[in-house]
Design brief:
Two copies of one chain form a homodimer. Chain A has 314 residues and is of the alpha/beta class. Chain A folds into two domains: 134 residues, 2-Layer Sandwich (Nucleotidyltransferase, domain 5); 169 residues, ATPase, nucleotide binding domain (Nucleotidyltransferase, domain 5). Helices cover 41% and strands 18% of the residues of chain A. The first copy, chain A, is built from ten helices and twelve strands. In chain A, strands 3-2-1-4-7 form a five-stranded mixed sheet, with helices on both faces. In chain A, helix 8 crosses helix 9. The radius of gyration of chain A is 20 Å and the shape is globular.
Chain lengths: 314, 314
């Protein structure tokens, strides 16, 4: 039995499972950014005994803990490199802390990397290799999975597709893909459109007054032209990012999860596939399928358990 | 003993070696593009007996043939997918033809992929993994080498860094990296500059009247401002391409070969490293070394031999 823990910028989730793709028990909480890393550590320390008690699993049955962390992590030191969202994590020896807390070995990895591993083991990537997983949520992350193993480059991560930028000459680098295509970026584009005089009434109505990525998606699904254009531009940029991934890695499948992907087939996946097809490298045409993720909100927890099982023995 | 054959758009080379990093004999020719693939096949059929006779190696001593082809190749069918330069290659079962010609098993692969393998085995990548090799010549190609093995994605190639394009929203995709940073692209930019009224006297002088990538490099090394600006823009674009590679793959080393890289440390590698450092993903800063290739003009031949030895047994 393994614990899988997702530590994100907003979500905190803990799951218990044997690594067979099912969870025996789960705990879900929200992060309080103001409380920093210490607040999250306290939440975990309180939630764990409660989760174990509720599931009827004794500590002695635990083989290890896997953590999917929302930021780059270092394999050698098993510590966080950086958190872009929560203060106090930079350089933190997270696996050591977790191991001391639970009393069993612990491993950490980037959340998108373990999510990709989960899709490879239990989800939309089962039986396919190589795989590139992309999560398009408030931010954009990614992971490359080759023959069931996370590719980590020199050991501090890889697959950072959300940080791809225009490849052209310029003194000042252009914006990264997250600027255009993340939930945060889509909301920012809508706010900028309003600032430039566009009619964002339908977006504000969909968001109960607020401009969010979800509100843009909802307004687009109701046919609002401003929302449709912003979404179309996001998908164009994402398509170029995926074309870059295919040119460099030619994976069997690109699996896309995260909140923005929930916009669905008609308004998201269909135009995305069309743009990738139109813009791709001709010699690699038709080799890479672009498919929705299968595991939903538990994906990082599943991946953290799978990673712990791989690294700490099953 | 293995034969290694490089089939490019301009170069045709054959080498003989055991896969220990040294060549027993070599043959070098130029491709006649007007004669198409049939012309190249004839050149090979004539050169081979001559090379074997000259080296004193009997056909019976040959274990296999490796071919590094200047275009995308298919692993499963061992045939050429496409040649952008020479007519007649598309879909050609090159390994089968070669095997029939020589009478021993043959394997083919993309030239930049086997060049990367050669640098991994005998050159600037020895002892480092993962590696990303980039050749910046008349075109731009690349290859990813993980633990001494070429990464081929789903089996038709990968590492096509020269085809990376701007990641941003647009109805019309922007130009690929080759447009800015290849020898061909650099020459094109200089011709465009002349067309727009720039003073290209120094470039034409350096090229004995012609505007070529080499002439731009030579004029830049003599301080010509037009040439310096064109070269600087090429290096900016290449730096963004390398930043994309690092974000997705975080290799231990990026190894750069090809004619353009011969511009050298001061005018090419130093500004390239500076741009990559300034523009890179902060969490991966300082992890990837950018180094010149070590194997020079024989790199594809060495790689073809190494590939044949891996695939056909040593």
């Amino acid at each position: 039995m393994f614990l899988g823990i997702e530590i994100g910028g907003t979500k905190l989730q803990i799951g218990l499972g044997s690594g067979d793709g099912a969870l025996v028990a789960r705990w879900r909480g929200m992060v309080n950014p103001a409380a920093g890393s210490a607040g999250i550590q306290e939440q975990i320390a309180q939630a764990l005994p409660e989760l174990l008690a509720r599931s009827g699993i004794a500590r002695g049955q635990l083989r290890g803990v896997g953590v999917g962390f929302g930021g780059p992590t270092d394999d050698a030191t098993q510590s966080v490199i950086k958190s872009h969202h929560i203060a106090g994590w930079d350089g933190f020896p997270l696996a050591r802390w977790m191991s001391q807390l639970v009393g069993v070995p612990a491993v950490i990895c980037n959340d998108a990397d373990v999510a990709g591993l989960a899709e490879a083991c239990y989800g939309a990537g089962r039986g396919f290799s190589p795989l590139f997983y992309i999560t398009v949520g408030s931010g954009i992350g990614g992971g490359l999975i080759i023959d069931g193993q996370i590719y980590r480059g020199v050991g501090r991560g890889a697959g950072e597709v959300g940080h791809l930028r225009p490849v052209y000459p310029s003194q000042a680098p252009g914006p990264i893909l997250e600027f255009w295509a993340s939930g945060w970026g889509i909301a920012q584009r809508a706010q900028a459109a309003e600032h430039h005089g566009a009619d964002v009434t339908a977006i504000r109505t969909a968001g109960s007054g607020a401009i969010t990525g979800k509100a843009v998606a909802d307004a687009a699904s109701h046919g609002d032209p401003t929302a449709r254009q912003i979404l179309d531009e996001a998908i164009q940029a994402l398509a170029e990012g995926i074309c870059s991934v295919i040119k460099l890695l030619c994976p069997r499948r690109v699996i896309i999860g995260g909140g923005v992907s929930l916009i669905g087939e008609e308004l998201f996946f269909a135009p995305l596939r069309r743009y990738v097809e139109e813009r791709g490298f001709a010699a690699f045409a038709g080799l890479t399928e672009i498919v929705p993720a299968a595991l939903g909100e538990d994906v990082v927890v599943h991946g953290a358990i799978a990673y712990a099982r791989q690294k700490l023995g099953g």
